[in-house]
Design a protein that fits this description.
By secondary structure, this protein is of the alpha/beta class. It is about 45% helix and about 25% strand. Helix 4 (about 140-155) crosses helix 5 (about 160-180) and helix 5 (about 160-180) packs across helix 6.
């Protein structure tokens, strides 16, 4: 109870009051009101539950969590989509609008004023999403884990996002030059060295931010995993980068010949990784399905805790179809955590119309239920 009061008075708590969608995935024209605490979005598979969460995520991050190509977002046979939100932020109503014509135009507005760059909006409304495919953070390649790092840090530090944008642009330019040099043996490499020098400042800033983040995240992750798993195993998370032990400028110089042969930049923070372990062994190779799910759930909740503390604000928490992927014990533990009052506005999707409601009622938690059918909100309870 004390913890709930502390959160209520210390942390800024944005509340999404209303969401209006036009041509967003399977929503032609829909307006949805939400409750302050727990929102249960229920319906059969394929009805648009996940799309609703993705609309909230898009409004916060300026991109979809699930679609790589924005042309996949607009409703079939339409060429634009629009998201509008009414948000209560410290007692004031904020209006945030995204207007997108895929491949042509993307405009974000806050209180009728357009942002000059979408990146200026990222982090204004922090968000954490937990989805079934998040196990890829452990099972897939390092790119997925770097995306997790960047997703978190971009919401906290606008400078980090700018460093990332600059770094990725220069990497693309350097790699394009390496391909041209391969077609011109003996060509002047001076521009290659100019790009190398330009890469150093943003890379060092990104490396420093990632290392500090993982150091702070680690004890939170371990504590959450112990709670969710019942303290059965010890897990760990470590940051791995070529910049840990070497000066980046010297590393680029050492790798120049190899880069020319391979026609790509082989050293840098674009090769960073997170190393996850359980009981002293690699998580990917030794974890059971239950351990894997517990770890990913703990990782995302640790991300939430870090963002909350770093920004002094409660992020939106989006939980997509997780109850069908977790056993009863983990569901119970998760709901216990959600009922502590340390989380802000929560959105949960489920195929079972009554499961979340029954759990919330049993714990005395306020909730609002929305039923989705074919991109329409059927009603609420």
């Amino acid at each position: 109870m004390i913890q709930t009061r502390i959160c209520a008075y210390v942390f800024i708590r944005p509340v999404l009051r209303q969401l209006a969608l036009t041509n967003f995935k399977n929503y032609a024209l829909e307006r949805i009101a939400f409750g302050d605490a727990l929102n249960c979005i229920v319906g059969r598979n394929g009805m648009g539950k996940t799309n609703l969460l993705d609309a909230i995520y898009y409004l916060c991050m300026g991109k979809s969590y699930f679609a790589q190509n924005e042309s996949q977002i607009a409703l079939h046979e339409t060429d634009f989509f629009r998201i509008e939100a009414r948000i209560d932020l410290e007692g004031k109503e904020e209006k945030v609008v995204a207007k997108v014509i895929p491949r042509r135009q993307k405009v974000f507005e806050r209180n009728e004023v357009p942002y000059k760059k979408i990146s200026e909006h990222v982090g204004a409304l922090p968000v954490v999403i937990i989805a079934p495919d998040d196990t890829q953070i452990v099972t897939e390649g390092s790119e997925v884990r770097r995306r997790f790092l960047d997703n978190t840090l971009c919401q906290f530090d606008p400078a980090y996002l700018q460093h990332l944008i600059v770094y990725e642009r220069i990497i693309d330019q350097r790699n394009a030059l390496l391909k041209r040099l391969a077609e011109q043996p003996g060509a002047d490499r001076s521009l290659l060295r100019v790009y190398a020098a330009q890469l150093v400042p943003p890379a060092e800033a990104i490396h420093k931010a990632r290392a500090a983040f993982v150091q702070n995240l680690r004890p939170v992750l371990q504590a959450l995993y112990e709670k969710i798993s019942g303290g059965q195993e010890i897990i760990d998370c470590k940051y791995q980068s070529q910049l840990d032990e070497a000066d980046f400028a010297e590393l680029l110089q050492q790798k120049e010949e190899k880069d020319c042969i391979l026609q790509r930049t082989t050293a840098g923070i674009h090769r960073d990784d997170l190393v996850f372990a359980i009981g002293g062994h690699t998580l990917k190779n030794f974890a059971s399905q239950g351990q894997l799910k517990s770890f990913v759930l703990s990782l995302k909740l640790a991300q939430y805790e870090w963002l909350k503390a770093a920004k002094n604000m409660l992020p939106f928490l989006l939980l997509d179809d997780i109850f069908d992927k977790l056993d009863a014990d983990r569901v119970a533990m998760l709901m216990e955590l959600l009922c502590t009052g340390v989380y802000g506005q929560v959105f949960i999707t489920d195929t079972d119309e009554d499961r979340v409601a029954k759990i919330a009622e049993a714990r005395g938690m306020d909730f609002l239920k929305r039923v989705v059918e074919n991109g329409r909100i059927k009603g609420s309870e």
